[in-house]
Specification:
258 residues, alpha+beta, Killer Toxin P4, Chain A, 2 domains, eight-stranded antiparallel sheet, five-stranded antiparallel sheet, elongated
């Protein structure tokens, strides 16, 4: 059975290229996807010259991340001096660390340069990671970015009692917030991630949420995402809110590694 995903047009200046097709299977044969979700080119940060110092610094960081073991699924690194300094943030999904993180990073880098050709900065999202490239190094911990966000909805509606379903879904998500907002240390790096499932009558709800490891106020970010669901996803069988600071997702089918 196939389910297409629709993308909310809340991310400014991002073209909607295609619907996402997700293959649904049983838990034992779950087909984990790493589909392209969205991107934004930060054109205001300018373009770089081929063979110039910015590109050389970017290549240094790309090699560094590619050779990193990505044990915590997170990297935030900078290299070079202004105006040619480069900053990279990579956050892989909580079930996609180490060897699962590398393929997502490789794909994200390749597609970023296709979609934002010559741009010094931008962001690209996939199912299992997001990548930010910029010439600016943000102050740490990073403040929550409420601007570069977007939502996606499963176009299928719940069969009945939509209001009750929405309430139970949000109640469950708030339960997960309490888990995700307290860090788990992985390889000396704090990670903010929670996932779970909950029986809702005859159906089962699956959900996950995550904050980037370097942001301030994870709980505030995740609770904001839950409120955003009301704008896109009431009565829907699935929904997502994604950004540069945190993200969440719920479905009526499993979509994570066990």
């Amino acid at each position: 059975m196939n389910s297409s995903y629709s993308l909310s047009k809340r991310l400014v200046n991002v073209p909607i290229l295609a619907m996402q097709l997700l293959l649904l299977r049983s838990v034992s044969s779950l087909n984990l996807t790493n589909e392209y979700l969205n991107h934004k080119c930060f054109v205001s940060e300018g373009k770089y010259k081929h063979g110039g110092m910015y590109e050389k610094n970017l290549n240094v960081l790309n090699r560094y991340v590619a050779e990193n073991d990505l044990a915590s699924g997170f990297v935030h690194v900078s290299h070079g001096e202004a105006p040619d300094s480069v900053n990279i943030i990579l956050q892989c999904r909580g079930d996609s660390f180490r060897s699962y993180c590398h393929p997502c990073y490789t794909t994200a880098v390749k597609e970023f340069h296709k979609r934002c050709q010559g741009d010094k900065a931008g962001i690209i999202w996939y199912d299992q990671c997001f990548l930010v490239i910029s010439k600016f190094k943000p102050q740490l911990p990073r403040k929550i970015d409420f601007k570069n966000t977007f939502s996606m909805q499963n176009p299928k509606n719940v069969n009945k009692e939509a209001r009750s379903f929405d309430k139970m879904t949000k109640d469950f998500l708030y339960e997960l917030v309490r888990k995700a907002s307290y860090p788990t240390v992985v390889e000396h790096q704090s990670t903010y991630y929670a996932a779970g499932e909950k029986k809702l009558g005859t159906t089962k709800l699956y959900a996950m949420m995550q904050c980037a490891s370097d942001i301030l106020q994870c709980k505030v970010c995740l609770e904001w995402c839950i409120r955003e669901l009301s704008k896109c996803c009431n009565g829907k069988q699935g929904g997502r809110v994604l950004g540069m600071s945190c993200n969440l997702r719920y479905e009526l089918y499993p979509f994570l590694r066990s």
